[in-house]
Amino acid sequence: MPLLYLQILANGLVLGGLYACIASGFSLVWGVQNVINILHGSFIVLGAYLAYFAYLQAGIHPFLSILIAIPVFYAIGYGLQRMMINRIIAAPVLLTLTLTFGLDLMLQNGMILAFTADFKKLVLDPPLGTIALGEMVLPVDRLAAMVLALALTAMLYLILSRSRIGRAIVAVRMDREAAALMGVNVPRIYAITFGLGVMMAGASGPLLAMIFPISPLGGPAYLGKAFVICVLGGLGSVPGAMVGGLVLGVVESFGALWFGPEHAITLSFTLLILMLLLRPHGLLGRKGYE
Amino acid sequence: MIKKLSLGAALVAGALAAGTAAAQEMIRIGAPLPITGPLSPEAKKQQRGYDLWAETANKAGGVKVGGKRIKVEIVYVDYQSNTPRAVQAAEKLITQDKVNFLFSPFGSGATKAASSVSEKYQVPTVAATASSAQVYDQGYKYLFGTFTPNDTLTEPLADIVGREAAGVRRVAILARNDLFPLAIAQEMEKSAKKRGLNVVYFEKYAIGTLDHASALSQIKSLSPHWIFATGYTNDLILLRKQMADQRIEAPVVTMIAAPAYQDWIDGTGKLSQNVTSAAWWHPAVRYKGKDVFGSTENYVKLFRAAYGALPDYAEASASAAGAMLQLAIEKAGSIERTKVRDALSAMNEMTFWGPVKFGPNGQITSLEPPVFQIQNGKPTVIHPKAIRQGELQLGVSN
After folding, report:
1. Which residues span the domain enclosing A80?
2. How far is it, in rounded angstroms, from Cα A159 to Cα A150?
3. Fewest CB within 10 A of the end CB: N or C in chain B?
4. Cis geometry, peptide bond prior to residue A126 (ω within 30 degrees of 0)
5. Across the interface, do B214 and A8 touch by the CB < 8 Å criterion?
């Protein structure tokens, strides 16, 4: 029995790594720009398609596809913010939400037209396989996702805390007007932030392509998780997305064991409501940014 | 005013249509389908099946009625994946569009709801996607279904495994908490218990579940001999992958309904090896029929030519619904509803879908759903005997 618990804990942690991957960019954009980017889930799916076709047609390993995805998705995000979202960024949050919701519908339907609604799956040959630790088994692809999530989180953390751009992003988050007065080019900072957020979505796509079936309408499922993780971890807090992801993964895993797999999702949303009631700024978030 | 005008116009048109019936006669079949909304992929399958039948019948000149041939037309109405609207759509098709016959809406629930309308107006109705016994136990005389009850899928499976895998004692069942996947899992539980097998695990997972690791760890700790999982393509690709993630192996692994689809086989790759499944029909079955398609092989060929893909059982069932209706009309020699109803009720014919004979409740009884196993990336029929292509292989590993 203790072995089962250990395995469930390990399952939860590697699942949490995936969740952190899914949520980190979403959290950054929401926290810094107060934009709820409904497109986030579909960008993950687009990244997954990129890896799928790169592997199928050119034999490019999904790990390498991540390197392709990073500049491509950064550019998409930067351009999108510059050309569209910047126009209504000062409007109430509902407007940006509506805009990204509309764009998401277009992206989803575009993907149905381009890739059909059939489920696809990137099947690696040979597969990455599993590692056994005693009786416990861990899948390599999920471990890799966890490492990537950690690496991206660390990178983002360093950018935000050490670079000039990072300081500017933080300054804009704290007080947009004051930052503008200090000479910070706010629209540009927003575009960079949004670019980083979309980049994280696109970069996690290839990893998720090895794990989940790919469907043009798969985005909302990822988005739902991202919401819960952000509220758990704290909005805009980079390590918060990591912690929120891990907590959610472990809670869902033990929830499935104790209450049955049909209640794992219910449990995660119960947790969301409890957090909103008791600690609305999240585990690692700072008061005032919720 | 406009409404009145169009009503008047319709009346005039109706009178005219009656007058020129000989020149413009058509057999019109109403098909309420969830063309938009969450069930839209299913509606698309149904449409492909119906359209292929209508095209094939019309290409042959139409349906033989007495001495002449009459073309068919399918009238679609979108009920937006909303069951109450499906009932309204059926009523509209009968009363306003004046269709001769009806195909049921999608799934057991909507079929049952709409069947009261077609019964009221005495319109022969063929259901292409309803398997639940509760649809057919209403004492209705005008409803006919192409799917046998759910236990006709699990019973032969349990028989074969009992016969050919002597060591199988412990069964673990994991079901998607959804109408059909759950119903089939419950039938499996009954079939297993009936044979003295020990059901060590029975759990449901929610629609939209992204992770099965916990359930699988638990299943692994119980070391079952037979793992039975239900769900759709995406669920079961993920589930099979996560079984490999935890190095779970078993003599028998059955999954319903995903392995009937090529998507699933492509999506699992080598992990599909030796997974068993059952469905009401499979493109690998071989029947020679008296219907417009002639044989299963010819049906599959026509379908491929039209859509560039293999038909699955839902698509074939829709085509079969049309083919059965056509056989009944030709037998009755008339499109009079009661005569066609009687011909359906008395039908005993071979078709590309399999033998067709309906029970007194209208549900097909003659069909023996195939049990198949994925062997080297190809579905291989292992039951029934008449169309068997291979033997059950034991051992599903990673």
Report:
1. 21-218
2. 14
3. N
4. yes
5. yes
Residue A285 lies in a domain: no
Among chain A residues, CA nearest to B258 = A119
Taking Cα atoms as reference points, which of A225, A203, A178, A191 lies closest to residue A71? A203
Element (H, E) at B350: strand B349-351
A253, B211: Cβ pair inside 8 Å? yes
DSSP helix/strand/coil, B121: coil
First to last CA, chain B: 70
With an 8 Å Cβ cutoff, are A264 and B214 in contact?
yes
Residue A284 lies in a domain: no
Q: What is the CATH number of domain B24-148+284-356?
A: 3.40.50.2300
Cα B22 from Cα B136, distance rounded (Å): 37
Residue B387's contacts (CB-CB under 8 Å, 6 or more residues apart) are: B285, B286, B287, B370, B381
- Is residue A248 domain-resident? no
The CATH number assigned to the domain with range B151-279+370-387 reads 3.40.50.2300
Whether B241 has its CB under 8 Å from any CB of chain A: the answer is yes
pTM of the complete model: 0.83
Cβ–Cβ gap A221/B210 under 8 Å: yes
Q: Which two tokens stand for residue B13?
A: 């048109």
**pLDDT averaged over consecutive 10-residue blocks of chain B (398 residues)?**
46 46 76 84 90 96 93 94 92 96 92 95 96 90 94 92 90 90 93 94 90 93 95 90 93 92 89 94 90 95 94 94 97 95 96 95 92 93 88 90
CA distance, residue A140 to nearest chain B CA (Å):
8
Amino acid occupying residue B214: S
Identity of the residue in A8, A252, A262 whose CB atom sits nearest the CB atom of B217: A8
